[in-house]
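Q: Give me the 3D complex with iron/sulfur cluster.
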Amino acid sequence: MHVELTREIARRFNHLYGREPDFEEKAKAALKTIGKKNSKLYETLRKQYQEQGDHEALEKARALLESQQHITLGDRERLFGYLEGGGKIILPEPQALLTKASKMPGLDGQKMSKSYGNTIALRDTPKEVDQKIKTMPTDPARVRRTDPGDPEKCPVWQFHLVYSNDDLKNWVQDGCRSAKIGCLECKQPVIDAVQAELDPIRQRAAEFSADMAGVRTIINQGCEAAREVADATLEEVRKAMGLTHE
Ligand code: SF4
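A: Here is the predicted complex, encoded as structure tokens.
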């Protein structure tokens, strides 16, 4: 949600303020700084992208720009913008970084969220995790142990999708539909997998809790590094908007 919002702001800002009056000339001058061979390749790739919508060419051109050592930040951004036909990219659009399991279901099968009260917290104790998963709802059709069920109607299956290998998933599918396994039995591998995932996290959390001074140092260093980058960006934003006092 926030990534999406930030992307929209960046796109709009670049559209409004990224067009310097002499943008094209500046982009062409910037091209000269990356050498003849590179600028020729850049032009070919840019053409392929702009005329045929070839996204692979766009990616290659971007990689080419990334690899240039002797180019100013402003020129690099200009050339990124020129590639796509627009102006200079002042605010790059952030991309989401997703892991393989990008959506984690909650204990009740809905989205995992604190406000739904269906979460497993990173610092839950092993006993809490055990308890939470053992009391998870299952397919309501399985009233008795002998009633067959359908994993598709069960939130525990969503966890198997995230944590289990194919053999285990087949065991669940078959065992649930034929009532060969009970729900507690089915939940145990999920409990084991979640505990194994959380163990090192709990350990790290305990180490950090015991060293608050160290944590503050890490935060301060991070703030400083972020401030440097933010200052440079803000400077560019002010310049683009004509808000500098020169
Ligand atoms: S056996 Fe597993 S998948 Fe089937 S209802 Fe029970 S917990 Fe859900």
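A quick observation: The mean pLDDT is 91.
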